[in-house]
Automatic annotation (TrEMBL):
Chain ranges passing through the membrane: none
Region called Disordered, residue ranges: 310-341
Family: Belongs to the UPF0696 family.
Bias (Basic and acidic residues): 312-341
Matching PANTHER family: UPF0696 PROTEIN C11ORF68 (PTHR31977)
Gene3D superfamilies: RNA Cap, Translation Initiation Factor Eif4e
Organism: Venturia inaequalis (Apple scab fungus)
Protein name: DUF1917-domain-containing protein
């Protein structure tokens, strides 16, 4: 048979070198979001979609959530920083090269059980140290001593005043409680344990959709430094906890920026609706939850309070050098998803 040389790899079948370079450049410049923003409402597209038969079997909640267009990383971010996944060895974490829908198919949040009770996703463009950061043991020891001293003081007052109402005792301890709170936060800053997280509590039915949105945004470098979703509901609840981490609870500008991103994704409402809360990881490390015996407010910020704040620069936070994060803070201090918040 005659050799078809005109179809070999060296032919002009794909165009000359300049044509190939131009076409490859156009492919890289394609913006899927912009394309569908203009085309999804065209009558031909709608007509074709209406001809696609529905599946005969029941569609799972995860599958319903997977009909999304993936977010793309910011051009400047993608161009200046190579993506890195600190959770590459964690089988129940999102991996580089894996799309968010592929991740949810591989690790569905409603049916997956993990050894730590969480499913993880890291921001591959977040700044990170070369070595993991450990929890400051001296800080934890000192803070636990202060917490124990507070309980001793509370017990002493109750014993000396057996008829005193618990609410009166709580009010009398207000100065000590405020000092305790300040010591915890100031100590956390000195110990470089400043990460915190926004907490979402979607229902079980909404969890796949919400988690997919979070994974899309985090893996595109648009939201937080890391996120996780609990593999089981809270006790006596139909809600799953999703945490979205920021690197510094003192940087109110960044804390608000992450909240604004969640509002853009319709994960929280700027006005009205159910508020969400932000918690410093130092509190988690010290087992301070919503029903703690110290009378401390477990959350540091609420979305309602942050949205009500004027948008001013956080000079105290921005004047300090920004540390580069690792996964150490998250895994060394992670809390059980079954504990009360």
């Amino acid at each position: 048979m005659e050799q078809l040389d005109h179809l070999d790899d060296d032919s002009d079948f794909y165009g000359d070198e300049e044509t190939q370079r131009r076409l490859k450049r156009k492919v890289k410049e394609v913006d899927v979001h912009r394309y569908w923003a203009h085309h999804e409402h065209l009558i031909n597209v709608i007509a074709i979609n209406n001809t696609i038969p529905e599946k005969d079997r029941e569609i799972t909640l995860e599958e319903k959530a997977l009909n999304v267009i993936p977010l793309r990383p910011e051009p400047k971010m993608a161009a200046t920083q190579e993506p890195f996944n600190p959770l590459s060895r964690v089988g129940w974490a999102k991996q580089l090269g894996e799309t968010a829908p592929e991740f949810l198919r591989r690790v569905p949040p409603l049916t997956t059980l993990t050894s730590d009770g969480w499913i993880w996703c890291a921001n591959p463009y977040a700044r990170r140290d070369k070595k993991p950061e450990d929890v400051d043991a001296a800080y934890v020891t000192r803070m636990r001593q202060l917490l124990a001293a507070y309980i001793d003081k509370k017990t002493e007052i109750a014993q000396q005043n057996p008829t005193m109402a618990p609410g009166t005792i709580t009010r009398r301890l207000l100065p000590e409680r405020e000092r305790l709170k300040d010591d915890i936060y100031e100590g956390a800053k000195k110990a470089n344990m400043t990460c915190g997280k926004w907490m979402l509590f979607p229902t079980t039915a909404d969890t796949p959709k919400v988690w997919l949105q979070v994974v899309e945004a985090v893996s595109a470098g648009k939201l937080g430094v890391m996120a996780k979703v609990a593999t089981e509901c809270k006790q006596s609840s139909n809600e799953r906890l999703i945490c979205i981490y920021t690197e510094d609870f003192t940087n109110v500008v960044d804390v608000r920026r992450q909240l604004e991103t969640m509002a853009d994704l319709h994960l929280v409402q700027r006005q009205g609706g159910r508020p969400i809360y932000y918690k410093a990881d130092a509190y988690t490390c010290l087992d301070i939850y919503s029903d703690n015996p110290y009378g401390l407010k477990a959350s540091q910020y609420s979305s309602k309070d942050i949205f009500a704040m004027p948008e001013t620069k956080n000079k105290s936070a921005e004047s300090r050098p920004q540390k580069r994060l690792t996964d150490g803070e998250f895994f060394k201090t992670r809390e059980s998803p079954f504990k009360k918040r």
